[in-house]
Write a structure and sequence with these properties.
The complex is a heteroheptamer. By secondary structure, chain B is mainly alpha-helical. Chain B has 3 helices and 1 strand; from the N terminus they run αααβ. In chain B, α1 runs antiparallel to α2 and α2 packs antiparallel against α3. By secondary structure, chain C is an all-alpha fold. Helix content of chain C is about 80%, strand content about 0%. By secondary structure, chain G is mainly alpha-helical. A two-stranded antiparallel sheet of chain G has the order 1-2. In chain G, α3 packs antiparallel against α19, α5 packs parallel to α11 and α16 runs parallel beside α19. The chains are: A mainly alpha, B mainly alpha, C mainly alpha, D mainly alpha, E mainly alpha, F mainly alpha, G mainly alpha. At the E-G interface, β1, α5, α6, α25 and α26 of E face α1, α5, α6, α7 and α9 of G. β1 of chain B pairs parallel with β1 of chain D, so a sheet runs across the interface. Bound molecules: sodium ion (2 copies). One sodium ion binds next to α8 of chain G.
Chain lengths: ~150, ~120, ~100, ~160, ~775, ~120, ~525
């Protein structure tokens, strides 16, 4: 069944959840939050969309496939540990740079751990969606994941 | 006790009280629909009050905005959830309380989908 | 050393916590007793609400603003869970 | 959608801790882009509806507070006095999705009333009411209260 | 050179199948030639060895285990090496005829050569563990040889039986050899003599283990039953394995160890008793068998018993002479028997006859072998038997028993010799239309040479028998050679002794028994009481017993029910862990103060858990689980770990969603189990809960002064640039955990996806 | 509190174990979830958490003063929760698929792989 | 840096495969290349550790015990090397044996993630990190087991999943308790801190940990999940499981006992010996009672786990009672050699069973016969591996058995040696059961049809490539036993003297200035 109320609410909630998820991701290093929670929030938004509308619509809104998110996220996470290797560090050793983003009061500390967290974020979105989409999608037999 | 503290404590106690009432309601009320009435409204209002208390307690911009967001989300999502459950419960044939005086919906519940969307993209 | 929070928590906040705790406990009864599934779902929903409330309250008591954003996120996700239950109920009700 | 855009911008400001104009601007742009991403932006002017919206908000808050107290009273009072009912509220024929949603949400948010269903033909809203003494009056209070004010918000 | 000879055979074994594909004929000649050449190589060393010189070659291998590549050539080794290579060569030649036109020939050569290599290695090895290694290899290669005709069920069964019996012995032997090595402090056989092992505490177990191993290999009672069954092997195999080589491995090892280990009451008496029993039993059984090879097999069993007994009696001279004689006549007879079967297709001597007209040379060869077996002068067998009788008569303690047993065995042996060696050639065929084709040269050459060799050994021992026997005596007795050995039959015959008389008596009685064999067989075949002598049943019972035990335990433990698996696992866990928990006094330390909310949460969690067990609606149970999750989240919030609380909250919700999306396909929960079972389960579960609860309490009251997380708190901000310590731990301090965890998630999602999407054919399952 | 929460932990483990020994697929998963909660609670207790004090460093500070909840077990629990999420989701779908393919949700009927 | 490669390479490759989902040929190429790299890395790592002692990498640059440390000592590097060998063979085998449908649905990335997780479990020096790798390898194995499965796979999987998750939960809870008692997770640091506790407390912490490892290692009485499931998935998956998964449990037991829980070795050692004895016996009894090649082999895994534990148990009891230190070292060396040998041979036997299955459609003894005639090379390869498994000289299994028996006898552990020898006979028996059932007999008698397992003859020939590799390896180890055993002895010495490990890990690495 599709509920009109739910659909309307979802269209409003999705962007909010995405913003909140990014919020959780970015500030996770300093406040409660992080890649997991951010990812779960974002994924919840899309999952809600899939529940309220249908999987096809959710896929369209997502614009990419969960599989790509997983693969990409994993690769980001794996590679985030590599930079330190170039200057004699250990794998996953943090490498930091200060980024002066316009609109930010203090310089933003950008480092490989954050990159790692972004990888986590993407993976979590990917896996939750891969599962919920697969569970919700009634059109069986479609082998393509991408 | 400052004024701000008074507000904080006041809102907190009121909110908590509403929550407690909601909980009592959910236990005491005779059928699902009346229980939902009690739970959704008193509950969300109660939590909203506590959130408001938090906003006044910290009294920083961010805290206020966050508290506001909590309130808005709660007040926006709680009814939606209630509507969904109510319709589902009715669809399941969950009986109304015997003292219910009138039931206009009986026999009129549309099986299948909700109203067809007016806007072309509402189905995504 | 026995770790505890500060003893001088305002009485009002303690009362609030007690009320919320009472509320959760009472709602649990509905969650556990049912009788119907929707009853349990709304009980769970309400418990979730009160948890959000408790988080806000905890933020006040411990003077930790970050807990407020936890409450925010919890509130968002709570909705998703209830929605899923509702959709399940709908599907089971009208297969 | 402007409202959402603003909300997003504010969230952005909190997130980055940049509470000034530049932050707001970045937030607005970011929010717009994000909204674009989820294909929700409709370029419509909203300004005219702000006032009506505020009126609605005030009314809703009032209603919520008032009726919450009533329900609180119901809760602790003798339940046998209650006379609940499920009533059909006839609707204006051309309500948009948003308006329908808003209406049923507001009805639900108000203690004592709970929307259950909107009929497929979008003509009726079924509402569960906790205590009904006069069904017609109850229905009228909904159509005159929320529905009218929502319609006033129309562009 | 010693190791090289083994290596040559190995190489040959590898090459043989390839060669065989090119030319079967050439292969048979090459392998036989090489084998005999190896014999010649050893023979070249004979003068030095016979002069008492000992050749040693030694390379280190796995020193920590005591295994070195040590080889030694002394008299005993020389005798065996010559037997293996020469008889092996003849057998290989014979095989060329036996497997003519058979594509399996290449495989056969490979296996047989591999066996010969193992056997040769065994007799020249000078390290206890190296001996064991070759020992096991002979078991395996003989397994393949016995089962060469694996299309037949009986053949497979016999191969497995031989392998298991010798394998069992081998394992016991391993223990024995190791113990021996520990007792001696060395694993080099040549160094054993110098050690004082007979007084060592490990001596008795070591000897028992070694003897069990040797007995099993050499088919000594009570392991005698496998050898006759092994006659399923092709005749050339029987000729080699069961006359002169494999079954002699046990005898060889006993002889090899005798100087350094023997001489104690335990050792000597065990050898005499078990050897004697085997001698009589084998000879008796040989008279009861109908087919050629079983008769020869039991006769071999008897001979092995004789050898073991002789060593136990310290009769090195008799042992050496008999060993040599037996190798020649038994190989001759096995080959002859194989040839007979090959040319007539018959196996039972009673149905054969008159083959003298078809294959005169083979007949002569067989007659020579049979006469030698019967102990007729002037053949080698006569010398052997005389010496055996003399040794028996001379023994200080066992003279009477041994002599009687020897005579009885001799009577049976004579009869068997007549049946095998004369009946097919000189008797009348049961079936007048018996068709026989003449034997080709490769079929008769081997037997003939062996028969003639036996005669030469008897008539002119100085040619090769005397020196071989003499040097072997030195090796067996461990004492310097005293030079009073008489192998000339004339010297043995005159002046006549008790032994001579007994020998003649036995011969006469044996021939008489042969004459009355129809009556004799009626007497010995009929009674069922003789069945116990047949140990096959015992083996079968043992195998069936182990299979049954296996089946029973497996049905008990691996009964297919997840319920009992979980219950047993948890029960065992409780039984192991609970004592470990309750024997400590770890419950010191200070419990926390209780607060109102903590208590409430704890009680609520308990209530939710208990209710979730009792609910019959799956969804309701899921909702209850959600309740527990929320309560946990609350606990996390109250105790200041907001990240965990948030994660718990989100995960709980997602699990509920997945549950909800899946569960409505599933039927309602029911109470299916019986009351007693529920009670058992509840008890086990309660025990599990008790243990884990105890752990929780103990861990909670324990206060660690300096947990590693103090460092995290100190370094999170200055070095990790994050104020949220939990997050810094997750993405920096312990990022590798998170790293693994996102892979867990990715794989879980992939799993869910494949479970839902990949629907292969429903018949995609094992057809069993 | 320690004792009471320890009892809760024990009850979670016990109930989980009991559910693992039932015959229904769904109860199996419920059992897993319960046991997982028990394990998390146990880790949580082992850390001797400090009521209310989050392991969050104040803005502008470099280190955290005074008693605070041990952040390491928190990180462990977080990881464990997420891993359990992955595993439980997989298991839920596994039982669904098994039910579909086998047509039963009775664990007692699953004996063909061991015979 | 090298030490991270055995973990990173397969996982990165798995990620790339997940990104390019469904591209079978790409997956195959990536998998083969990755395992080649893994092999190279493991060999180099082992050589390096042997040359210059225990190495470790503090991941993230945080000194132990703050961060997670990967530790390469001889044992862990050996296990990593074995992982690459088995993985390489399995990947090669999969290239020809796996059907397209299965390959499209992630067979290769799943295998790679399994191999990465196994490597992680071997190389990590952190208790909780070990848990994480355990979970990853478990989950990968779950999915591999059920991928495209039918009834049997699901049935097996449910048992496998349930019992292994019980183990995981016990492990997880134990980690919590251990942290509560010691405040650390780094194994070297734990070794130090556990010694400060009363011995009984340390043993109490050891008990649940060892139980959970015991479940993973499939020891008596926890092994039920293994025979219930290992024969159900495609043979290459069984082979991979058979070679590696239980060995992770054994590795964990060895690591825990030698490094951390050396406080009450007499008690623990006795317990381990009892468990080892029952494991050997029940496993082999199960094996001889089966009538299917794969089931026999599955039960054998259980039995042989007992041997590995026996070496450990003998060493512990001997040393705890002041016995012969040489015997203890020999016993542990025997266990190490046994693991080394077993992983190679067991994998190979399962691969052989795979060829049998793909050639005939079944692995049931009574449905197939005479393969020695129709597939002599396969028969020869099986024979070599089977005899090695049974401990026939001079194949690798002989040395393993010899070392264990010698260590046991020398240390005076006669009972367990007697059990080991008896079990070894039954092992031989069950190998002959397979040999006579599958390879001997008249091939005409039981004509077979491979059905859905059918593969083209050229593919079947290709399948022999990895099998030959492994068979050659077991022969080579047999003949080259001296250096290998030297290595095993060194490993044993290192294990029995954990101070080297502890010092290496807890000494911070010198700062590298870029
Ligand atoms: Na503690
Ligand atoms: Na220690």
């Amino acid at each position: 069944m599709k509920s009109l109320v739910l659909q309307t609410a979802t269209r409003i909630l999705l962007p909010v959840m995405l913003i909140v998820s990014l919020y959780a991701l970015i500030r996770g290093h300093n406040e409660p939050g992080g890649g997991f929670i951010g990812g779960l929030l974002a994924a919840s938004g899309f999952a809600l969309y899939a529940l309220a509308f249908d999987v096809e619509s959710a896929r369209r809104v997502l614009r990419t496939s969960p599989g790509t998110l997983i693969g990409g996220g994993l690769i980001v996470a794996v590679l985030s540990g590599v930079p330190a290797l170039f200057d004699g560090g250990v794998y996953m050793e943090g490498r930091w740079t200060s980024l002066d983003i316009p609109g930010m009061s203090s310089p933003f500390k950008l480092g490989t751990p954050l990159l790692f967290d972004i990888g986590v974020y993407l993976v979590v979105i990917g896996i939750v969606l891969l599962m919920t989409f697969a569970l919700e999608d009634r059109h069986d037999g479609a082998a393509a994941r991408n | 006790m400052t004024i701000a503290e008074a507000f904080t404590w006041g809102f907190a106690v009121i909110g908590a009280a509403f929550c407690a009432i909601a909980a009592i309601g959910i236990v005491r009320m005779p059928d699902l629909y009346t229980r939902m009435q009690s739970a959704t409204k008193a509950g969300s209002l109660g939590v909203a009050c506590v959130a408001l208390a938090a906003g006044t307690h910290f009294a920083s911009t961010i805290a206020v905005i966050e508290a506001t967001l909590v309130i808005v989300f709660l007040l926006a999502t709680a009814p939606v959830a209630s509507i969904l459950i109510a319709r589902a419960a009715y669809g399941m044939g969950l009986p109304l309380w015997e003292q219910t005086t009138r039931d206009d919906l009986r026999g009129n519940l549309d099986e299948g989908d909700a109203p067809r969307a007016a806007e072309p993209d509402s189905k995504g | 050393m026995i770790p505890t929070i500060d003893d001088n928590v305002p009485i009002a906040l303690l009362i609030s916590a007690a009320l919320l705790g009472f509320g959760i406990f009472v709602s649990l009864w509905r969650l556990l007793a049912g009788p119907s599934l929707p009853d349990r779902v709304i009980a769970l929903d309400l418990i979730g609400f009160m948890l959000v409330g408790l988080m806000c309250l905890a933020a006040i008591v411990t003077d930790q603003q970050p807990l407020l954003s936890v409450a925010l996120m919890a509130g968002l996700i709570l909705f998703l869970g209830t929605t899923a239950f509702a959709i399940y109920l709908q599907r089971r009700g009208a297969p | 959608m402007l409202a959402i855009n603003i909300v997003l911008a504010v969230v952005w400001m909190i997130a980055t801790g940049s509470l000034h104009a530049r932050g707001l601007l970045v937030g607005l742009i970011l929010g717009y882009v994000l909204l674009g991403l989820v294909s929700l932006v409709r370029p419509i002017a909203y300004v005219r509806r702000v006032w009506a919206g505020m009126v609605l908000l005030a009314f809703a808050i009032y209603e919520v507070l008032r009726s919450n107290l009533i329900v609180a009273w119901y809760t602790v009072s003798d339940l046998r006095a209650l006379e609940p009912a499920v009533l059909r509220v006839p609707l204006e024929p051309d309500l948009t999705n948003g308006e329908l949603t808003l209406l049923s949400v507001l009805v639900t948010l108000t203690p004592g009333t709970l929307s259950i269903d909107i009929s497929q033909d979008r003509q009726s809203l079924y509402v569960h009411i906790m205590h009904v003494e006069d069904p017609d009056k109850a229905i009228r209070s909904i159509t005159d209260g929320f529905e009218r004010r929502i319609l006033e918000m129309r562009p | 050179m010693i190791a090289g000879s083994v290596a040559i055979l190995v190489v040959l074994a590898v090459l043989a199948p390839i060669l065989h594909r090119l030319s079967a004929w050439l292969t048979s000649v090459i392998v036989a030639g090489t084998s005999i050449a190896i014999g010649a190589l050893y023979a070249l060393r004979a003068p030095e060895v016979l002069a008492g010189e000992v050749f040693v070659e030694s390379w280190p291998w796995v020193e920590q285990l005591g295994l070195s590549l040590s080889f030694r050539l002394d008299g005993l080794s020389m005798l065996f090496a010559l037997l293996i290579s020469v008889i092996g060569g003849l057998v290989l030649l014979f095989s060329g005829g036996y497997f003519r036109g058979d594509a399996r020939g290449g495989r056969f050569y490979a296996t047989l050569l591999a066996f010969m290599a193992s056997m040769l290695g065994l007799v020249v090895a000078d390290n206890l563990l190296l001996i064991f290694a070759f020992w096991e290899l002979t078991s395996i290669t003989s397994f393949l040889l016995i089962g060469f005709g694996h299309e037949r069920e009986r053949s497979r069964w016999a191969a497995v039986q031989a392998l298991l019996v010798t394998g069992l012995g081998g394992l016991v032997l391993l223990a024995g050899l190791l113990l021996l090595g520990f007792a001696a402090g060395t694993f080099e056989v040549r160094e054993l003599v110098d050690s004082d092992i007979r007084d060592h505490a490990l001596y008795v177990p070591a000897v028992i283990c070694v003897l069990v191993g040797c007995f099993s290999k050499s088919a000594i009672f009570p392991f005698h039953f496998w050898l006759p069954n092994a006659m399923e092997a092709p005749s050339p195999v029987s000729a080699l394995l069961h006359s002169s080589t494999m079954v002699k491995a046990g005898v060889y090892l006993i002889a090899r160890l005798h100087p350094s280990v023997g001489g104690t009451l335990l050792w000597d008496d065990a050898l005499i008793i078990f050897g004697g029993i085997t001698m009589v039993l084998g000879a008796f059984h040989s008279t009861r068998k109908r087919a050629l090879k079983p008769i020869l097999a039991y006769s071999t069993v008897s001979s092995l018993g004789v050898l073991v007994m002789l060593i136990g009696m310290g009769a090195a001279k008799a042992a050496a002479a008999y060993l040599l004689a037996h190798a020649m006549f038994k190989a001759c007879l096995f080959l002859a028997a194989g040839a007979i079967t090959k040319i007539t297709g018959e196996k039972e001597p009673e149905r054969l006859g008159g083959l003298i007209r078809v294959t005169p040379i083979l007949s002569i060869a067989a007659a020579l072998g049979a006469l030698s077996l019967a102990g007729m002068f002037p053949l080698a067998g006569f010398v052997g038997k005389e010496l055996v009788l003399k040794a028996g008569l001379a023994h200080p303690e066992w003279a009477t028993a041994v002599t009687i047993a020897t005579v009885v065995a001799a009577v049976f042996t004579v009869m068997a010799a007549c049946v095998v060696g004369f009946r097919p050639f000189f008797g009348k065929p049961a079936d007048p239309n018996l068709k026989a084709k003449p034997a080709e040269w490769r079929l008769w050459l081997g037997p003939l040479l062996l028969g003639i060799a036996g005669m030469i050994a008897g008539v002119a021992p100085a040619l090769f028998a005397q020196p071989l026997v003499e040097s072997t005596i030195v090796s067996i007795s461990g004492a310097p050679y005293t030079g009073d050995i008489k192998l000339q039959f004339a010297e043995l015959l005159w002046p006549p002794t008790t032994a001579t008389i007994l020998s003649i008596v036995a011969l006469t009685l044996g021939v008489g028994l042969y004459a009355m064999r129809a009556l004799y067989r009626r007497i010995t075949t009929a009674p069922a009481w003789l069945a116990w002598l047949h140990a096959d049943d015992f083996y079968d019972h043992a195998v069936k017993g182990s299979l049954g035990l296996g089946g029973l335990t497996t049905r008990l433990i691996q009964n297919g029910h997840l319920h009992s698996y979980v219950r047993n696992t948890l029960l065992a866990m409780v039984l192991i862990v609970a004592p470990a928990v309750f024997r400590t006094d770890a419950a010191e330390g200070q419990p926390w103060a209780i607060t109102f909310l903590d208590g409430l949460i704890a009680v609520s969690i308990i209530a939710c858990a208990l209710v979730s067990v009792m609910l019959t609606s799956a969804l309701a149970a899921v909702a209850t689980l959600g309740g527990i999750g929320f309560l946990m989240a609350l606990l996390f919030v109250l105790y200041g770990v907001p990240d965990v609380a948030m994660t718990q909250f989100a995960v709980e919700t997602l699990i509920v969603i997945i549950f909800v999306l899946v569960i409505y396909h599933l039927p309602k929960l029911r109470s299916l189990t019986s009351g007693p079972r529920r009670a058992t389960d509840a008890t086990v579960a309660a025990g599990f809960g008790l243990v884990m609860g105890a752990f929780a309490y103990l861990a909670a009251v324990r206060d660690v002064a300096d947990p590693v997380s103090e460092e995290h708190a100190l370094r999170s901000m200055p070095e990790g640039f994050g104020r949220n310590i939990v997050n810094v731990i997750l993405v920096d301090f312990r990022a590798l955990d998170t790293f693994g965890e996102i892979f867990v998630l990715a794989i879980a999602a992939t799993g869910v996806y494949t479970l839902l999407r990949l629907r292969t054919r429903p018949e995609m399952k094992e057809r069993s | 509190m320690a004792l009471l929460l320890a009892i809760s932990t024990g009850v979670l483990f016990a109930c989980g174990a009991y559910m693992l020994m039932r015959r229904s697929f769904v109860k199996l998963v419920i059992g897993l979830v319960l046991v997982g909660h028990g394990a998390n609670l146990l880790i949580f207790m082992a850390a001797r958490p400090v009521a209310g004090r989050s392991p969050l460093i104040e803005k502008g500070e470099q280190t955290l003063e005074g008693p605070f909840s041990d952040p390491l077990p928190a990180a462990l629990i977080l990881t464990a929760i997420v891993i359990a999420f992955g595993i439980v989701s997989y298991t839920i779908v596994l039982i669904k698929r098994t039910f579909q393919d086998l047509g039963t949700d009775d664990l007692q009927a699953l004996t063909s792989t061991d015979r | 840096m090298l030490i991270t490669l055995p973990i990173l390479l397969p996982l990165l490759a798995a990620s790339v495969c997940l990104l390019f989902w469904g591209r079978v040929r790409l997956h195959k190429a990536i998998a083969v290349l990755t395992m080649g790299g893994h092999l190279w890395a493991s060999i180099t790592l082992l050589a390096q550790v042997r040359a210059s002692g225990i190495i470790h990498a503090d991941i993230g640059g945080w000194d132990a015990p703050i961060g997670i440390t990967l530790v390469g000592d001889l044992l862990s590097c050996l296990m990593a090397l074995l992982t690459s060998i088995v993985g390489f063979a399995a990947v090669l085998f999969s290239c020809a044996a796996t059907d397209d449908e299965r390959a499209r649905f992630g067979h290769f990335p799943l295998m790679l993630s399994l191999l990465g997780a196994v490597s992680g479990a071997f190389l990590t020096g952190d208790l909780f990190n070990l848990y994480v790798w355990f979970e990853l390898l478990l989950l990968s194995s779950f999915v591999l087991l059920t991928l495209g499965g039918g009834r049997l796979q699901f049935e097996g999987a449910i048992k496998y999943v349930t019992l292994n998750l019980v183990s995981s939960m016990i492990f997880l809870a134990s980690i919590g308790v251990v942290y509560g008692f010691t405040g650390t997770l780094n194994m070297a640091d734990l070794a130090v801190r556990l010694d400060e506790l009363p011995p009984a407390d340390a043993t109490m912490l050891a008990a649940p940990l060892l139980v959970s490892f015991g479940i993973k290692a499939a020891v008596f009485p926890f092994f039920n999940w293994l025979p219930a499931s290992y024969h159900t998935p495609p043979p290459v998956v069984s082979a991979l499981f058979a070679g590696l998964l239980t060995k992770v449990g054994v590795y964990a037991v060895i690591r825990a006992c030698t490094l951390m829980f050396d406080q009450e070795w007499a008690l623990l050692g006795d317990a381990i010996l009892i468990v080892a004895g029952f494991t050997m016996v029940t496993g082999v009894l199960g094996a001889i009672s089966q009538n299917d090649m794969r089931r026999i082999l599955s039960f054998h895994i259980v039995s042989q786990i007992g041997y590995m534990l026996m070496g450990l148990g003998v060493a512990m009891t001997v040393l705890a009672r002041g016995g012969d230190a040489e015997a203890a070292t020999l016993a542990v060396a025997g266990a190490v050699f046994y693991i080394l040998h077993h992983i190679i041979v067991k994998t190979n036997l399962f691969l052989v069973s795979g060829v049998v299955l793909h050639a005939t459609g079944t692995s049931a003894l009574e449905r197939v016969s005479g393969l020695v005639q129709t597939r002599p090379l396969l028969a020869a390869l099986f024979f070599v591996s089977a005899m090695s498994l049974a401990g026939i000289p001079v194949l690798s299994g002989f040395w393993a058995k010899l070392a264990l028996v010698r260590g046991g006898l020398q240390g005076g552990a006669y009972a367990i040696v007697a059990v080991a020898l008896a079990v070894s006979l039954l092992t031989l028996f069950s190998m002959t059961k397979i040999w006579t059932g599958v390879f001997w007999g008249d091939p005409e008698e039981k004509p077979t049809d491979a059905g859905e397992y059918a593969r083209s003859e050229s593919r079947l020939r290709f399948l022999l490539v990895p099998i030959t590799m492994l068979a050659v390896l077991t022969v080579a180890i047999g003949f080259g036993a001296a250096p290998v055993f030297d290595f095993a002895m060194e490993t044993a010495e290192q294990l029995l003297d954990p101070s080297g490990y502890i010092d290496a890990v807890l000494t911070p690495l010198p700062e590298v200035t870029p």
